[in-house]
Design goal:
Oligomer: single chain
Strand order of the largest sheet: 1-3-2-4-5-6
Shape: globular
Structural class: alpha/beta
Distance between the termini: 29 Å
Number of strands: 6
Number of helices: 14
Largest sheet: 6 strands, mixed
Helix content: 25-40%
Radius of gyration: 18 Å
Strand content: 5-15%
């Protein structure tokens, strides 16, 4: 960011076709670049334009996270990927509290979205794959202080009731399926975290026409959640960081700037001459904020839903140590800082104080 709260380093549109998920949302150096997925043209924009993203990890990560998808499925307590939904899951769930009777008071946490939630590439010993223990939302690594760990500290009954069905490279259209699978593991979570957007951004001139469908996909996921667990609180995140805030950091570090691929696309932050393009940076931000506005609009129609009030977008700042070596995801340090940034939002929406 994102992971996570910036977006992802964007690549050239032409490069997107050659890249996989990365083309769509991650850095040119991301493993997905080599995958050559269908629809790669989309995130490629993010990558190049996101040169901003890649570099700033939050904003970059966000896009990257969204586009980032690990090649191997996350380990689950049920023994592997969720074959019913086609997604991989990170699950640690206690027995259902409902017992087939009236729904019990909500307890626990589920997370759905893209690789900004999976800890992808945060563990140097597991390059380019998910490290669910490091997820800023549901992680259990010592010293991480994820949202889940913080929630357990104030509500001990939360322990064991956690599921993360986020998947690298997934778009908003996958949210409903992820939500259904996660709710099967934790039927009545107190908190549902949604981190999406990145992989839906195309930066090819088609985004305005795509935003309505994006909103419908988010609304569909919200409906799945509220129908199954009406007492759950849902938190939708803004994109961590903003491209213009990352450009200065990239420009100040030659090594980082060298990772960016120049391009002529509407969201490419670096032109062929090696200069940053303010108009493209502004375009990228504008597109990003349109998706955020649509996400907030969908959320506003659901009483149980809350957006983060722009917390991730405005209050998550990235340090160089926060960016993983693919410049598209966050290190453990970066993920811990994102959890710290988002915890006050969790306190607010859950009315813990």
């Amino acid at each position: 960011m994102e992971a996570t709260s910036y977006a992802t380093l964007s690549n050239k549109t032409s490069d997107a076709r050659r890249a996989s998920c990365i083309l769509e949302r991650t850095l040119p150096h991301s493993r997905r670049l080599l995958a050559q997925p269908k629809g790669a043209q989309g995130m490629q924009t993010i990558i190049t334009r996101l040169g901003w993203l890649a570099m700033s990890v939050p904003a970059l990560l966000v896009l990257t996270a969204a586009c980032g998808g690990s090649s191997s499925p996350a380990v689950t307590s049920t023994g592997g990927p969720n074959t019913a939904t086609g997604t991989s899951a990170i699950v640690t769930s206690a027995p259902s509290l409902t017992g087939g009777g009236p729904q019990a008071a909500p307890v626990g946490l589920i997370a759905i979205g893209h690789s900004g939630l999976t800890g992808e590439n945060s563990d140097l010993s597991k390059p380019r794959i998910d490290a669910p223990e490091n997820s800023w939302a549901t992680g259990t690594a010592p010293g991480l202080n994820s949202i889940y760990q913080r929630l357990v500290a104030v509500r001990p009954e939360t322990a064991g009731h956690v599921a993360n069905f986020a998947e690298g490279g997934s778009r908003a259209s996958a949210l409903a399926g992820q939500a259904s699978a996660a709710l099967h593991k934790v039927p009545a979570p107190a908190l549902v975290i949604i981190q999406t957007i990145d992989n839906d951004i195309r930066c090819d001139g088609s985004d305005d026409a795509r935003i309505a469908d994006f909103g419908k996909a988010v609304a569909s996921a919200l409906d799945v959640i509220t129908s199954a667990s009406p007492a759950s609180t849902i938190l939708v995140m803004s994109q961590p960081g903003r491209p213009e805030n990352d450009v200065a950091a990239v420009a100040a570090d030659p090594a980082l700037k060298d990772r960016l691929k120049p391009g002529m696309g509407i969201c490419d932050t670096l032109n062929p001459a090696g200069a940053f393009v303010p108009e493209h940076i502004a375009t990228l931000r504008s597109i990003l904020e349109k998706y955020e506005a649509e996400q907030s609009r969908a959320c506003a129609h659901v009483p149980q839903c809350r957006d983060d009030g722009g917390e991730a977008a405005t209050n998550y700042t990235t340090f160089l140590a926060d960016a993983s070596d693919d410049s598209a995801h966050l290190t453990v340090q970066g993920l811990a800082r994102l959890a710290e940034t988002m915890w006050p939002v969790g306190v607010r929406v859950l009315e813990l104080q």
